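hi!! sorry for the late reply, been swamped w classes. u asked for the two structures so here they r. pasted raw, havent cleaned anything up. first the sequence of the first protein and right below it the tokens
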Amino acid sequence: MLLRQLEYLVALARARHFAKAAQACYVSQPTLSEGVRKLEDELGIPLVRRGRRFDGFTPEGERVVVWARRILADRDAMRGEIQALRAGLTGRLRIGTVPTASTAVALLTQPFCAANPLATVQVFADLQAVDIVNRLRTYELDAAVTYHSSVVGQEFKFVPLYQERYVLLTRLTAPEPGPVEVSWEEAAQYPLCLLHPMMQGRQVLDAVFETVGVPVTPRVETDSIASLFAQVRAGHWASIVPHTWLHVFGVPAGMRAVPLVRPVRTERIGLVLPAREPVPVIGQALIDVAARAGIAAALEQLPD
């Protein structure tokens, strides 16, 4: 069995098309097809359903794809560790994040690059929590920053970073400062702009409103935290945003951010990696940075 054959199989799983998989591997389609056939012959089982085009994998093929991804990921991790021992950490760190946690990723990338000047970072922002789980399982991400509730009970390593809490963001329409805190029940009475309901950050809010027994129907929905700020600035809408985004924008001129209480809801946000031993050297380097970065304290600071 050759690692190249496993690479062909994983490329086919990603592209779901023989010609595109061959192109991704920089080989001809016959070469890729023959490599997959040799793998099938060696294992003694059909891996691919073949018709006039790619029709998917057999049940055995689906399991072999899982093993192939793991074997190739371990090969890459071994190469990375050997290179780190010889000349320092190199390679690319692939890190994903849900939109609400992208501010925390920004606080990790700078110290990571400073500690590892030969390494680079690729950030995949605005991923849904389910996409993060899938990409971690297929080794398309080295790590991610997401909600603990989205990975609890699954085969991942979770490193806590901070507790997310929530503020009501509104336009400042009067010279008086307004209330110093707002209940969730009171917040439901505002004309709200919220995240899309399929997003984990929105589902957290819906769960709180359900707990207090108040239905909420936002007039505007978006998949971007920055868009929430823009909608509030337009003058008519209010929104509920994680307190961590005030670290980036502060409280913009003409707006106010009021803590939400009764209840005070928090969500654990952390660094998530596949549960592998030994931990790949690039993942361990990120864990070490996270331990020193003081993310929770940094996110409490507002810009000047």
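now the second protein. again sequence first, tokens right under
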Amino acid sequence: MALYLHDGSVGGQATWTEAALAAGVADGAVISPFFTPQNARPRNPSGDEYAERIRGARGEVILDATTHAITLPGVDNWANYRTWSFWGGPRGDLSTPVHVQEHVARVFDHQASLGAPHLTPTLTLDNPIGPSADSAIELAEEGRAQDSASWQSLSGRRGFWLSPDLDAYVGSLVSIRAPTWFVTVVRDTMDYPPDMSDLRQTAAVCRTVQTLARRSRVVLCQSDLFGLPGIAAGADSVGSGWHTKQRICCPATYQQNDPGQVRRQAEWHTYEGLAARLHSSVSDILQRNAAARANALYQGTVSSATADLRHHHLGALRSLVATVDSAGISPSDRVQALRDVYEFALAEIDDFTRRYSRLFQQVRAQHVDGPLAGLEAYARAEGIWA
């Protein structure tokens, strides 16, 4: 299993990544051309330098060309992306086999120069039938043709996951026999926690992961705590970070920040025992009324130091992934392991609601109810909900 740190736009990204890798709370970093330039720019190390710093901290280096973001609506953060030469013709032009071949070759060349594995680019799909879906298959097949051991990517929005044609499309991907799949759920907004109320989508993602995981390793990109149902379905790794753009893939992830907008980062405390993060005001209620119980759920003593909070979140997430992944290869055992985590969290949160504050109900609604319902829908359909 692994926890990957996705690239992002926060100042100090490279330094914070090094520190997290050195602390053992993350295993590698995913470089994106939207956030890291090929050649150094002010406040942005070059791809080569960033890769060396990741390796120096004993981390795995991955370069994701992030082709799946270029057609998302409103994407305009091209300053760093333009420094990479991923395209022989116009950006995004995959209209001919030659353009597909050249794009994949250029991506692989850049990855090889950084000492990263070949990760085949893909497109974000709204439907498993149509020109974009066909182009994504062409990219995947070209990646396999250029390197039979290349990793593959799958990226989809809500319509893709809910399509009745999803399973047939995923079946065609299995035949590529990729050793690793990078799977990305593209959301409509950058809300975190993401809206997990549509249990059908969660179930569809889990079903897809289960199918791919029969022959391949599966990574749930930019998923954070909300990748846990996918881990139960057979994935072994998630992508995360300390900023929303590292935890959520959506059009706004690749849009320019408004330089005139000042955002004050709220303080959040991640409670491993609740599989949830609590705003400091809610966490304080718990600490005041049941400190020993709170510390047991938090797995330590709460610190307000920013670096401590970053590392604690990653450590808690990594531990939750390990808890589910260590249940073994049986889908029913993995589902039961995560079900146990969620049901324990529900009992604790409901007790806190009765004793201390109704604010804990929001924690339940945002972090547990949706993922658990999606997990149950997936598992019942597969006949593995005991």
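hope this helps!! also noticed smth abt the second:
The first strand starts at residue 2 and ends at 6.
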